[in-house]
Amino acid sequence: MPKTGDTFITTLKKAHLEWGNYRFTGTRDVIYGEGYLQIPRTDAKRIGIYNSNHSSSVNTFNCNSADGFLSGVTLKASGSMEAGDVYAKQFQGSGNLQIIGAWFSHISAKIGDRVKVTWTSPTEIKIEKL
């Protein structure tokens, strides 16, 4: 489980910035404005960032952005590398897949930008564009 002060940095790619419309599956309609933050596998393991497959984990976090655009939004650690895997591969809005996309738009995010994720408590994170 994450601890206060834990941190990781992720580099944005096209799929993160255009999640709702840049996809290789036909499982749902195109939805513009969605985005997510990738959690590098090594960091998920090092910090203990779990998805819902892990029975004793917390996988939702209160999130604030360093610029103040996001305040008290809930992000969910989700996804996995393979079926049954317990380590999360991304942060997404819990119940709102467009919340991170809105922040990306606010900060004028582009491919190659880096985002730092820092735990300010075991259940709260701060995100900032570097």
pLDDT below 50 for ≥5 consecutive residues: which ranges?
A: none
The CATH architecture would be Beta Barrel
Look at the structure and give the CATH class. Mainly Beta
* Biggest sheet overview: 7 strands, mixed
In what order do the strands lie side by side in the largest sheet?
1-6-7-3-4-5-2
CA gyration radius, whole angstroms: 14 Å
Straight-line N-to-C gap: 25 Å
Number of helices: 3
CATH topology description: At1g16640 B3 domain
What integer is the average pLDDT?
A: 88
Residues in helices, as a percent range:
10-25%
The outline comes out as globular
- How would you name the CATH homologous superfamily? DNA-binding pseudobarrel domain
What order do the SSEs take from the amino end to the carboxyl end, as H and E?
Answer: EHEHEEEHEE
Query: What structural class is derived from the secondary structure elements?
Result: alpha+beta
Please summarize what this structure is.
The protein has helices at residues 14-17, 41-47, 99-106, and strands at residues 7-11, 37-38, 60-65, 73-78, 90-93, 114-121, 124-129. It has a seven-stranded mixed beta sheet with strand order 1-6-7-3-4-5-2.
